[in-house]
# Entry
Amino acid sequence: MIPRFGSLASLLERDGDHVSEAGRTILLSHGRTQERAVLLFHGLTSTPKQFRRYAQALFERGYNVLAPRLPRHGHRDRLTEALAGVTEARLRTFASESLNAARTLGEHVTVAGFSAGGTLALWLAQRAQFDRAVAIAPFFGAAIVPPPLMGTICAALLRLPNRFLWWDPVRRERQMPEHGYPRYPTHALARLYRLSREIVDDAASAPPKAREVVVVFNAGEASVSNAATRGLLSTWRRAGAQVDEIVLRAMPPSHDVIEPERRVDLATRVFPLILDAIDPRHDA
# Structure
């Protein structure tokens, strides 16, 4: 059995009674250290359940799989204001702890994440040595905001009171998925953007330490800025880094391409594409 100590034990022990069953960290282990392990980061206000289908498929391909619950996520109370306490420092610590935990599960580690989780995957890719980073629609700014203005807007948000806004102002607390929060705090978005800027700023002086980096873009992206993310990739390529893109084409305007409880048709369509981006070595 893989001993549960250090970072791995810490991640698992945080799932107390205040955390819903769907919100808990997912650990799928073959009972020993495998050749390969994968670390999966879910998106802002979601839970590890967002990656459940991917986790099971990767486990069946021989991976040990860890999908940790992001800080202050997954509470039983979907209207909790716990996310008001999210900070860049806490996200940095969480990402590093999660990678340390994944390293106890496999000799070679892939880190993948969606949206905010994709930002964390690229933050680790810039700083840490591991095999492969896969960022699915990572957040480096809002699609409706020109990249040069994003920093100014986020600075203003942090000066203003922290407000909780509905993802869907019509359905409000009735919106899907049930395992996620229906609201997000404005300060959390601003802090996540500042974390993304750390990656961009550091990339100007050093290439990523991860051996391979892959970014999955939705050509029909409706929420995050593809242009801002491509700016980072251009910087990395100039430094000689191995960076690839996968573009999901002919997709409806959408951001959440992996959540089956929101768009089952879209999630089903992209599942094999993203699964193979995470595990391109698999012989189907």
